[in-house]
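Below is our example:

___
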Amino acid sequence: MPYLTPIKRTDFLHEQNLMKYIFFYQTAIGKIGIAEKNGSITDLYLEHDQIPDDANLHETEMIHLAGVQVTEYLSGVRKEFSLPLDPKGTPFMQTVWTALCAVPYGETRSYKEIAQTIGNPGACRAVGLANNRNPIPLFIPCHRIIGSNGGLTGYRGGLTVKSYLLELEKRYA
């Protein structure tokens, strides 16, 4: 899945080093922080998330591009993100996050359906845990995953934000 493949772009090479950068934006879903390291988006922090101490406050070109794409997404203009992403997680989490990226805009899947998609139908709870640990919500659309009964289940940004995102996508799909 191209969403999880880091893309090294030469126009961002001058900013690449071992530092992690973060910048904050006020959005329709509240204040968010977007983090980048070595030219790839690594984290998206929602309003009540713990912000790491090791990140430097600086709007890199990549973070700016991500901020523009989030703004376009939240206004209903953008349906897919085109950014290099580099989420950190176990191989199982990476597999789940890749499956989440395959859920189309405006659609939902259950934890059970994702478990079946990755070839591990008994892993519903593990899929839920990987979904919860997604470091880049929105870009990796964990909000599109719902309970088997069609009900909303937990979301790091809260169920109000999850509901908002699903309604937004339904409206512009």
